[in-house]
Specification:
The structure holds 2 protein chains of 2 kinds. Chain A is an all-alpha fold. Chain A has helices spanning 2-9, 18-21, 32-35, 48-51, 55-70. Helix content of chain B is 53%, strand content 30%. Chain B has a 4-stranded antiparallel β-sheet, with helices on one face. In chain B, strand 2 (36-52) and strand 3 (55-67) form a beta hairpin. Chain B is globular and about 45 Å long. The chains are: A mainly alpha, B alpha+beta.
């Protein structure tokens, strides 16, 4: 049990905020192509603990996604049946 | 003066004349309220992420302008009334924007447009997207594994041992 846990720990990598690492990457509600990497297939915003974004950029990102949804550039939800 | 941008969707079933008509109307509203149009950028017909008034497509237009704050109220009021506008969003870009800034921008933009490289851009973005996708899938698999460890250690240690 303990051994297994240790082996898995190795995979744990510290996530870095993609927007902090690459300053050329801008958060813009008019650019759904970039925003799409931060929502699930269903269109839900991916939480910070998974995407690894910093608080500041996650805040800007969620605002941008919400604006993009409002102007029909991104979906609020998808209607595909699984 | 403040600088705003309004992104709005025009009914795609309009003719070219109809689109011009809409453009004229909203440009005039801004000019009448002592505003200045910086850019009127027609994105063209795009698929909407979800149907709006039973339409699957929309004609997107980005209007970049500056003026006093009443201008937004007036513009949005007219957009709400106008049947040809499906949706609109207005975002404030900066709090202070003077005539000088406007002239500076015009001066800066003119040479930029000539130098802009037309060919390289699409290729680069394509590669970047592939890279990002793989990264994301790695991350998601990691988190799944973490979750597994937690449940094993927390809830059912006796079974394993």
């Amino acid at each position: 049990m303990v051994v297994r846990r240790r082996r898995r720990r190795v995979f744990h990598r510290r996530k870095i905020c993609r927007f902090c690492a690459d300053s050329s990457l801008k958060i813009d509600y008019k650019d759904p192509k970039t925003l799409r990497y931060f929502v699930t297939e269903r269109g839900k915003i991916i939480p910070r603990r998974i995407s690894g974004n910093c608080a500041r950029h996650q805040r800007q990102l969620s605002l941008a996604i919400k604006r993009a949804r409002h102007i029909a550039l991104m979906p609020y939800t998808t209607t595909t049946t699984f | 003066m403040r600088r705003y941008e309004t992104l709005f969707i025009i009914d795609p079933e309009l003719t070219d004349e109809g689109l011009k008509d809409v453009a004229e109307k909203f440009k005039n509203i801004i000019l009448a309220d002592k505003g200045h149009i910086i850019k009127y950028d027609e994105w063209g017909k795009r698929k909407l992420a979800y149907p709006v008034r039973k339409r699957e497509y929309g004609f997107y237009v980005l209007l970049d302008y500056c003026g006093p704050s009443d201008i937004v109220n007036e513009l949005e009021r007219n957009m709400r009334i106008d049947e040809r506008i499906l949706k609109y969003i207005t975002v404030k870009l900066s709090d202070s924007f003077d005539q000088e800034d406007l002239e500076k921008m015009k001066a800066a933009e003119a040479p930029e447009q000539k130098e802009a490289p037309p060919e390289e851009v699409p290729e680069k973005t394509g590669e970047a997207f592939v890279e990002e996708e793989t990264k994301e899938s790695e991350e998601s698999s990691e988190t799944e594994e973490e979750a597994e460890v937690d449940t094993e250690s927390g809830e059912a240690p006796s079974k394993k041992e």
